[in-house]
Design brief:
152 residues; alpha+beta; GMP Synthetase, Chain A, domain 3; 2 domains; two-stranded antiparallel ribbon; 7 strands
């Protein structure tokens, strides 16, 4: 399992940029900050991570099935009683399966292979999904390196 590191730097009030060691960047801001658009909110990045992880795993586990048209839509549903957390994350895999060679069986085989890949994604291979499902320990360190918060 790989370890990851992201640096997040402040651009201005409620406007940040996250960077990885490979040079990729993503802007993070409040949705209601018009001066910081286009951007993602932190929760939107969580949803993007779930969809992206699912897509990358399906690419690996469903290689034998044509899935170029696969679209993954992730929604969050929260209620007041979720107390500042996302209540439910729904990951929907959408694709029109090809008709095949007319026997109908190839479409069923493609559907079965994709369903298997999607199950394996969330049961075994998608680090993001499995971390969200099982939780992770979060430690917040202050400027002096001391632990200011530890939970999970």
């Amino acid at each position: 399992m790989a370890d990851y590191r992201i640096e997040t730097v402040r651009n201005g009030e409620r406007d940040w940029t996250a960077r990885n060691d490979r040079g990729a960047e993503v802007r993070i801001a409040a949705a209601d900050n018009p001066g910081a658009q286009p951007s993602f909110t932190p929760v939107e990045l969580l949803l993007a991570a779930l969809g992206g992880c699912g897509g990358l795993v399906v690419d690996r586990t469903a290689r034998t099935v044509e899935h170029d048209g696969l679209r993954i839509v992730v929604d969050s549903v929260s209620r007041p009683e979720d107390d500042g957390r996302v209540g439910v994350l729904r990951v929907a895999y959408e694709i029109d399966l090809p008709d095949g060679d007319g026997d109908g069986d190839s479409q069923g085989q493609a559907a079965e292979a994709l369903e298997r890949a999607i199950r394996l994604t969330h049961e075994k291979y998608c680090t993001v999904s499995r971390t969200v499902e099982h939780g992770a320990r979060v430690e917040a360190l202050g400027p002096d390196g001391s632990t200011l918060f530890a939970g999970g």
